[in-house]
Amino acid sequence: MVRPYTNKNLFFEQKITASFLIYDKLVNHMSASLESLLTAILVLMSPVMVAIPISYGWKWWSGVEPEHEHYREKVRRVLDAGLPLSRFRQELDREARIVNIDAERQSRIESDLLFPLNLKHFLLLPGMIVWPFLGLFAAIITIPIMPIIWIFEWILIRKKILLKIGIFVQKVTRWEIIGIPRMEDGVKNPDRILSAINRMPITVFLGLFAFLIVSYLPFDSSTVLILSSLFYIILVSFISVVRAATLSTMVFADTGNRRLLPMGTFVEEQLGPWVGVGLIFLLSRQIFYGTELRSGQMFGDPVLFALTVLLVLYTATIIGVAVEISFFRYRAESIRITFQEQIIKQFNPTLYLFTRNLGKLRISPLMSLEEWVQKGESIDFIDLEKKSSEYSSK
């Protein structure tokens, strides 16, 4: 006997149908969310996938032939000994002629050892490639940057605020300030472009870091972009003046921990780990929890957010190139000399030669840093041993 179709049966079927519809919608939503997430990750990984083959191409361009490796090893031995290349400039040139290496290849090999480029540098290559085609855009960006850099130069250098910071660091840490000749002194046809590219990653990643920090403020997408640009311009202006001032022979000697910390890399070593870890944390947090953290089209859609990150990265690269050309090429040397003179008047540091020979390390006092500056920041290696012994006997 067939049971009659009741309202109870109808209600039960409707409930099952609604459950299946909800389940189907949830599955489709999860599938779409997972697809967007994977696409966003691929978008963010695309610069890495491009940078890896380029890094191998760079190694080939700098020299991989046996004669290139032979000359590279000769230069590395000089650097490992702790001596400037100027000390063995004639010997290195003679060695290059023996193995038929021209001056351009010499410059590439020496620059590659002094200013090594790795994956983080090649991540910025697309922005560097398009920079010549965006010269007008870069010039527009540079206009508001330069006055801010001049303001920081006036505050930090002319008003000696950076010197006061150095005095404070020296008192707190009890480090000694000394001078050690830079290894790149005497490099064959120094390549300014490579040295500039070597400095750029920390500047560029600070721009991306500023964008991710500002993105957590309760503003709409356009306001976030404007505020992060202003914050980045202020940050890069401050960092540029500090780095220009410390690109010298001055070194912090941390005798308690047996360390020598060049001033030129001190700021980058302090900022680098924080910026790197912060970028990974903020990017992953926004990608995986974007809709829960922020609303809006740019932040809610993982793919659009990933594309925005790349746009910010390469825009920051263009700004970095503009700063290198407009500031480091024309103002950095003057700032370096001024700050170096302030340090000499305040601390009267000694110039040392830090060398290694047959497994033995030696740090030899040569002269006062003031005397070295008066000699044109060059060392006469002929009477080096004589000068070292005279200074040690004082």
Describe the structure.
It is a single chain. This protein has 394 residues and is mainly alpha-helical. The protein has two domains: 32-59 and 115-347, no CATH class; 63-114. 72% of the residues lie in helices and 8% in strands. The chain is built from 16 helices and five strands. The chain has helices at residues 7-62, 66-80, 89-98, 103-114, 119-122, 125-130, 135-158, 161-173, 192-214, 221-246, 263-293, 297-300, 302-328, 332-347, 369-374, 384-392; strands at residues 176-179, 250-254, 259-262, 350-357, 360-368. A three-stranded antiparallel sheet has the order 1-2-3. It has a two-stranded antiparallel ribbon with strand order 4-5. Strand 4 (350-357) and strand 5 (360-368) form a beta hairpin. Helix 9 (192-214) packs across helix 13 (302-328). The longest helix has 56 residues, at 7-62. It is globular and about 65 Å long. Mean pLDDT is 77; it is low at 7-12 and 18-32.
What keywords describe this structure?
single chain; 394 residues; mainly alpha; 2 domains; two-stranded antiparallel sheet; 16 helices; 5 strands; 72% helix
CA-based gyration radius: 28 Å
| Number of helices, where a helix is a run of at least 4 consecutive DSSP H or I residues | 16
Overall number of domains: 2
Strand order of the largest sheet: 1-2-3
Order of helices and strands: HHHHHHHHEHHEEHHHHEEHH
Beta strands, count: 5
Low-pLDDT parts are 7-12, 18-32
The largest pleated sheet is described as: 3 strands, antiparallel
Q: Separation of termini?
A: 120 Å
Q: Output mean pLDDT.
A: 77
What share of the residues does DSSP label as strand, in percent? 5-15%
Which range best describes the helical content: under 10%, 10-25%, 25-40%, 40-55%, 55-70% or over 70%? over 70%
Spatial shape: globular
- Protein structure class: mainly alpha
